[in-house]
Protein backbone atom coordinates (compact mmCIF):
# COMPACT_ATOMS: atom_id res chain seq x y z
CA UNK A 1 0.00 0.00 0.00
CA UNK A 2 1.20 3.50 -0.75
CA UNK A 3 -0.91 5.40 1.79
CA UNK A 4 -0.81 5.75 5.57
CA UNK A 5 -3.64 5.17 8.02
CA UNK A 6 -4.17 7.26 11.15
CA UNK A 7 -6.87 7.33 13.83
CA UNK A 8 -9.16 9.98 15.30
CA UNK A 9 -10.56 9.18 18.76
CA UNK A 10 -13.21 11.14 20.67
CA UNK A 11 -13.01 9.23 23.99
CA UNK A 12 -16.70 8.20 23.91
CA UNK A 13 -18.22 7.41 27.29
CA UNK A 14 -20.39 4.34 26.95
CA UNK A 15 -23.46 3.70 29.07
CA UNK A 16 -22.81 2.77 32.71
CA UNK A 17 -19.13 3.70 32.63
CA UNK A 18 -17.03 6.56 33.91
CA UNK A 19 -15.06 9.19 32.01
CA UNK A 20 -11.92 7.63 33.52
CA UNK A 21 -12.76 4.32 31.82
CA UNK A 22 -13.30 6.07 28.49
CA UNK A 23 -9.99 7.93 28.71
CA UNK A 24 -8.17 4.79 29.81
CA UNK A 25 -9.55 3.07 26.71
CA UNK A 26 -8.20 5.94 24.58
CA UNK A 27 -4.73 5.40 26.07
CA UNK A 28 -4.89 1.66 25.38
CA UNK A 29 -6.11 2.28 21.83
CA UNK A 30 -3.21 4.68 21.20
CA UNK A 31 -0.78 2.03 22.44
CA UNK A 32 -2.36 -0.64 20.22
CA UNK A 33 -2.34 1.77 17.27
CA UNK A 34 1.38 2.28 17.75
CA UNK A 35 2.01 -1.47 17.76
CA UNK A 36 -0.22 -2.07 14.74
CA UNK A 37 1.42 0.59 12.58
CA UNK A 38 -0.95 3.56 12.46
CA UNK A 39 0.91 6.76 11.58
CA UNK A 40 -0.92 9.26 13.83
CA UNK A 41 -3.35 9.18 16.72
CA UNK A 42 -5.48 12.31 17.09
CA UNK A 43 -7.94 13.34 19.78
CA UNK A 44 -10.91 15.66 19.38
CA UNK A 45 -12.32 18.63 21.29
CA UNK A 46 -15.94 18.58 22.47
CA UNK A 47 -17.62 20.68 25.16
CA UNK A 48 -20.52 20.10 27.55
CA UNK A 49 -21.15 16.60 26.21
CA UNK A 50 -21.83 13.88 28.78
CA UNK A 51 -20.95 11.16 26.27
CA UNK A 52 -17.51 12.44 25.21
CA UNK A 53 -14.55 12.87 27.57
CA UNK A 54 -12.30 14.78 25.15
CA UNK A 55 -12.80 18.40 26.25
CA UNK A 56 -9.10 19.41 26.32
CA UNK A 57 -6.95 17.83 23.60
CA UNK A 58 -3.73 19.48 24.80
CA UNK A 59 -3.98 17.79 28.20
CA UNK A 60 -4.86 14.42 26.72
CA UNK A 61 -2.07 14.70 24.12
CA UNK A 62 0.52 15.16 26.89
CA UNK A 63 -0.78 12.03 28.66
CA UNK A 64 -0.75 10.00 25.44
CA UNK A 65 2.78 11.11 24.57
CA UNK A 66 3.92 9.87 27.97
CA UNK A 67 2.28 6.48 27.40
CA UNK A 68 3.55 5.87 23.85
CA UNK A 69 7.00 6.07 22.29
CA UNK A 70 6.85 6.41 18.48
CA UNK A 71 3.41 7.21 17.07
CA UNK A 72 2.62 10.85 16.28
CA UNK A 73 0.02 12.34 18.65
CA UNK A 74 -2.11 15.36 17.85
CA UNK A 75 -5.36 17.27 17.90
CA UNK A 76 -8.21 16.70 15.52
CA UNK A 77 -8.64 19.48 16.33
CA UNK A 78 -8.25 22.45 18.65
CA UNK A 79 -11.23 24.78 18.16
CA UNK A 80 -9.21 27.95 17.61
CA UNK A 81 -12.10 30.43 17.80
CA UNK A 82 -12.27 29.96 21.58
CA UNK A 83 -8.64 30.70 22.37
CA UNK A 84 -5.69 33.04 22.15
CA UNK A 85 -3.49 32.04 19.21
CA UNK A 86 -0.47 32.83 21.38
CA UNK A 87 -1.55 30.40 24.10
CA UNK A 88 -2.25 27.63 21.60
CA UNK A 89 1.25 28.16 20.17
CA UNK A 90 2.78 28.00 23.66
CA UNK A 91 0.90 24.78 24.47
CA UNK A 92 1.99 22.98 21.32
CA UNK A 93 5.55 24.30 21.34
CA UNK A 94 5.87 22.92 24.85
CA UNK A 95 4.41 19.55 23.77
CA UNK A 96 6.78 19.46 20.79
CA UNK A 97 9.72 20.22 23.07
CA UNK A 98 8.76 17.36 25.40
CA UNK A 99 8.30 14.90 22.51
CA UNK A 100 10.46 16.01 19.54
CA UNK A 101 9.13 14.99 16.14
CA UNK A 102 5.89 13.47 17.45
CA UNK A 103 3.39 16.33 17.84
CA UNK A 104 0.67 17.42 15.39
CA UNK A 105 -1.49 20.52 15.69
CA UNK A 106 -4.84 20.19 13.95
CA UNK A 107 -7.02 23.32 14.01
CA UNK A 108 -10.77 23.45 13.47
CA UNK A 109 -13.19 26.30 12.92
CA UNK A 110 -16.26 24.63 14.48
CA UNK A 111 -17.33 25.41 18.07
CA UNK A 112 -17.11 21.83 19.33
CA UNK A 113 -20.34 22.29 21.26
CA UNK A 114 -23.59 24.22 21.51
CA UNK A 115 -23.94 27.98 22.21
CA UNK A 116 -23.98 27.61 26.02
CA UNK A 117 -20.44 26.20 26.07
CA UNK A 118 -19.28 28.65 23.40
CA UNK A 119 -20.50 31.55 25.53
CA UNK A 120 -18.75 30.10 28.59
CA UNK A 121 -15.49 29.80 26.62
CA UNK A 122 -15.70 33.22 24.97
CA UNK A 123 -17.65 35.26 27.52
CA UNK A 124 -14.67 37.41 28.49
CA UNK A 125 -13.99 38.47 24.89
CA UNK A 126 -15.13 41.81 23.53
CA UNK A 127 -17.02 40.61 20.41
CA UNK A 128 -16.02 43.75 18.51
CA UNK A 129 -12.29 43.20 19.17
CA UNK A 130 -12.29 39.43 18.78
CA UNK A 131 -10.29 38.55 15.64
CA UNK A 132 -11.81 36.52 12.84
CA UNK A 133 -10.71 32.94 12.22
CA UNK A 134 -8.41 33.88 9.33
CA UNK A 135 -6.63 36.46 11.47
CA UNK A 136 -6.30 33.97 14.33
CA UNK A 137 -4.77 31.40 11.98
CA UNK A 138 -2.32 34.00 10.68
CA UNK A 139 -1.29 34.91 14.23
CA UNK A 140 -0.90 31.26 15.21
CA UNK A 141 1.19 30.51 12.14
CA UNK A 142 3.41 33.48 12.96
CA UNK A 143 4.04 32.35 16.53
CA UNK A 144 4.76 28.77 15.43
CA UNK A 145 7.18 29.99 12.75
CA UNK A 146 9.38 32.06 15.08
CA UNK A 147 12.93 30.80 15.51
CA UNK A 148 15.05 31.28 18.61
CA UNK A 149 16.87 34.57 18.80
CA UNK A 150 17.04 37.78 20.86
CA UNK A 151 15.79 39.93 17.96
CA UNK A 152 12.23 38.59 18.37
CA UNK A 153 10.31 40.50 21.05
CA UNK A 154 7.44 38.05 21.53
CA UNK A 155 8.02 34.29 21.29
CA UNK A 156 5.79 31.34 22.20
CA UNK A 157 8.47 29.68 24.32
CA UNK A 158 9.89 27.12 24.47
CA UNK A 159 10.87 26.99 20.80
CA UNK A 160 11.05 23.27 19.88
CA UNK A 161 13.94 21.81 17.91
CA UNK A 162 11.39 20.14 15.61
CA UNK A 163 8.27 22.28 15.02
CA UNK A 164 4.80 20.79 15.23
CA UNK A 165 3.20 19.61 12.01
CA UNK A 166 0.27 21.92 11.17
CA UNK A 167 -3.11 20.91 9.78
CA UNK A 168 -6.30 22.83 9.09
CA UNK A 169 -9.47 20.75 9.30
CA UNK A 170 -12.47 21.71 7.20
CA UNK A 171 -15.12 20.78 4.65
CA UNK A 172 -15.26 23.78 2.34
CA UNK A 173 -13.39 25.37 -0.55
CA UNK A 174 -12.76 28.44 1.64
CA UNK A 175 -11.04 26.36 4.32
CA UNK A 176 -8.90 24.58 1.73
CA UNK A 177 -7.78 27.90 0.24
CA UNK A 178 -7.03 29.30 3.70
CA UNK A 179 -4.83 26.30 4.54
CA UNK A 180 -2.96 26.68 1.26
CA UNK A 181 -2.42 30.40 1.85
CA UNK A 182 -0.40 29.68 5.00
CA UNK A 183 1.28 26.51 3.75
CA UNK A 184 -0.64 24.26 6.14
CA UNK A 185 -1.67 20.70 5.34
CA UNK A 186 -5.42 20.39 4.85
CA UNK A 187 -7.67 17.61 6.15
CA UNK A 188 -11.00 17.29 4.41
CA UNK A 189 -13.71 16.26 6.90
CA UNK A 190 -15.56 13.69 4.82
CA UNK A 191 -16.65 11.98 8.06
CA UNK A 192 -18.96 14.98 8.55
CA UNK A 193 -20.06 15.44 4.93
CA UNK A 194 -19.67 12.55 2.51
CA UNK A 195 -20.76 14.43 -0.62
CA UNK A 196 -18.16 13.31 -3.15
CA UNK A 197 -19.00 16.19 -5.51
CA UNK A 198 -18.00 18.61 -2.75
CA UNK A 199 -14.89 16.52 -2.10
CA UNK A 200 -13.93 16.98 -5.77
CA UNK A 201 -14.33 20.76 -5.49
CA UNK A 202 -12.37 21.04 -2.26
CA UNK A 203 -9.53 18.79 -3.40
CA UNK A 204 -9.22 20.74 -6.65
CA UNK A 205 -9.21 24.06 -4.79
CA UNK A 206 -6.46 22.95 -2.40
CA UNK A 207 -4.41 21.34 -5.18
CA UNK A 208 -4.54 24.51 -7.27
CA UNK A 209 -3.94 26.94 -4.39
CA UNK A 210 -1.10 24.95 -2.81
CA UNK A 211 0.83 24.25 -5.99
CA UNK A 212 -0.03 20.57 -6.30
CA UNK A 213 -0.51 19.28 -2.77
CA UNK A 214 -3.30 16.78 -1.97
CA UNK A 215 -5.34 16.95 1.26
CA UNK A 216 -5.53 14.21 3.83
CA UNK A 217 -8.99 12.64 4.04
CA UNK A 218 -10.82 12.13 7.33
CA UNK A 219 -13.41 9.42 6.81
CA UNK A 220 -15.54 7.08 8.88
CA UNK A 221 -14.96 3.33 8.82
CA UNK A 222 -17.00 0.47 10.24
CA UNK A 223 -15.50 -2.99 9.76
CA UNK A 224 -17.05 -6.32 10.74
CA UNK A 225 -16.67 -9.98 9.81
CA UNK A 226 -19.82 -9.71 7.66
CA UNK A 227 -21.24 -6.78 5.70
CA UNK A 228 -24.66 -7.18 7.34
CA UNK A 229 -23.09 -6.78 10.79
CA UNK A 230 -21.27 -3.63 9.68
CA UNK A 231 -24.58 -2.19 8.47
CA UNK A 232 -26.17 -3.00 11.83
CA UNK A 233 -23.34 -1.31 13.69
CA UNK A 234 -23.69 1.77 11.49
CA UNK A 235 -27.16 2.54 12.85
CA UNK A 236 -28.32 6.09 12.17
CA UNK A 237 -25.39 7.88 10.56
CA UNK A 238 -27.16 11.10 9.65
CA UNK A 239 -25.74 14.53 10.46
CA UNK A 240 -27.53 17.89 10.42
CA UNK A 241 -26.08 21.26 9.49
CA UNK A 242 -27.51 24.47 10.95
CA UNK A 243 -26.87 27.32 8.50
CA UNK A 244 -27.14 30.92 9.72
CA UNK A 245 -27.45 34.03 7.56
CA UNK A 246 -24.10 35.91 7.72
CA UNK A 247 -22.88 33.56 10.44
CA UNK A 248 -20.95 30.35 10.99
CA UNK A 249 -22.84 27.13 10.49
CA UNK A 250 -22.45 24.04 12.63
CA UNK A 251 -22.86 20.30 11.99
CA UNK A 252 -24.31 18.11 14.76
CA UNK A 253 -25.20 14.46 15.17
CA UNK A 254 -29.01 14.58 15.36
CA UNK A 255 -32.02 16.69 14.51
CA UNK A 256 -32.63 17.14 18.24
CA UNK A 257 -29.16 18.64 18.70
CA UNK A 258 -29.71 20.92 15.71
CA UNK A 259 -32.94 22.20 17.22
CA UNK A 260 -31.25 22.63 20.61
CA UNK A 261 -28.48 24.65 18.93
CA UNK A 262 -31.11 26.93 17.43
CA UNK A 263 -32.83 27.31 20.82
CA UNK A 264 -29.63 28.09 22.75
CA UNK A 265 -28.47 30.56 20.10
CA UNK A 266 -31.88 32.28 19.99
CA UNK A 267 -31.93 32.10 16.19
CA UNK A 268 -34.91 33.21 14.14
CA UNK A 269 -33.30 33.09 10.67
CA UNK A 270 -31.71 29.68 10.07
CA UNK A 271 -31.84 26.56 7.92
CA UNK A 272 -31.40 22.94 9.01
CA UNK A 273 -30.16 20.57 6.30
CA UNK A 274 -29.49 16.85 6.55
CA UNK A 275 -25.99 15.66 5.69
CA UNK A 276 -24.83 12.10 5.09
CA UNK A 277 -21.33 11.54 6.49
CA UNK A 278 -18.72 9.63 4.56
CA UNK A 279 -18.54 6.22 6.23
CA UNK A 280 -17.04 3.14 4.59
CA UNK A 281 -18.59 -0.02 5.98
CA UNK A 282 -18.37 -3.74 5.38
CA UNK A 283 -15.73 -6.41 5.68
CA UNK A 284 -12.08 -5.40 5.95
CA UNK A 285 -11.57 -6.39 2.30
CA UNK A 286 -14.46 -4.20 1.15
CA UNK A 287 -13.37 -1.18 3.21
CA UNK A 288 -9.80 -1.58 2.00
CA UNK A 289 -11.04 -1.67 -1.59
CA UNK A 290 -12.81 1.66 -1.03
CA UNK A 291 -9.70 3.20 0.54
CA UNK A 292 -7.70 1.96 -2.47
CA UNK A 293 -10.26 3.52 -4.83
CA UNK A 294 -10.08 6.90 -3.11
CA UNK A 295 -6.29 6.72 -3.01
CA UNK A 296 -6.02 6.01 -6.73
CA UNK A 297 -8.67 8.55 -7.73
CA UNK A 298 -7.38 11.49 -5.71
CA UNK A 299 -3.78 10.60 -4.89
CA UNK A 300 -4.50 10.60 -1.15
CA UNK A 301 -1.39 9.69 0.83
CA UNK A 302 -3.05 9.44 4.26
CA UNK A 303 -6.49 8.72 5.70
CA UNK A 304 -7.58 9.86 9.18
CA UNK A 305 -10.08 7.21 10.28
CA UNK A 306 -13.01 7.79 12.63
CA UNK A 307 -14.97 4.75 13.83
CA UNK A 308 -18.52 5.91 14.73
CA UNK A 309 -19.58 2.65 16.41
CA UNK A 310 -21.37 3.07 19.74
CA UNK A 311 -20.63 -0.43 21.12
CA UNK A 312 -17.16 -0.25 22.66
CA UNK A 313 -16.16 -3.88 22.00
CA UNK A 314 -17.37 -3.64 18.41
CA UNK A 315 -15.54 -0.32 17.97
CA UNK A 316 -12.21 -1.85 18.98
CA UNK A 317 -12.87 -4.97 16.92
CA UNK A 318 -13.64 -2.81 13.88
CA UNK A 319 -10.31 -0.99 14.12
CA UNK A 320 -8.41 -4.21 14.79
CA UNK A 321 -9.95 -5.99 11.78
CA UNK A 322 -8.82 -3.19 9.49
CA UNK A 323 -5.38 -3.10 11.10
CA UNK A 324 -5.00 -6.84 10.55
CA UNK A 325 -5.87 -6.42 6.89
CA UNK A 326 -3.67 -3.37 6.27
CA UNK A 327 -0.59 -3.77 8.45
CA UNK A 328 1.62 -6.88 8.20
CA UNK A 329 2.80 -6.39 11.79
CA UNK A 330 -0.75 -6.39 13.14
CA UNK A 331 -1.68 -9.49 11.15
UniProtKB/TrEMBL annotation:
Keywords carried by this UniProt record: Monooxygenase, Oxidoreductase
InterPro entries: Bact_Lucif_Oxidored, CmoO-like, Luciferase-like_dom, Luciferase-like_sf
Pfam families: Bac_luciferase
CC terms in the record's Gene Ontology section: cytosol
Residue ranges of every copy of the Luciferase-like domain listed in the record: 15-112
GO molecular function: monooxygenase activity; oxidoreductase activity, acting on paired donors, with incorporation or reduction of molecular oxygen
SUPFAM superfamilies, per database record: Bacterial luciferase-like
PANTHER family per the UniProt record, alphabetical: LUCIFERASE-LIKE MONOOXYGENASE, N-ACETYL-S-ALKYLCYSTEINE MONOOXYGENASE
NCBIfam families linked: oxido_grp_1 (TIGR03558)
Family: To bacterial alkanal monooxygenase alpha and beta chains.
Record's protein name: Alkane 1-monooxygenase
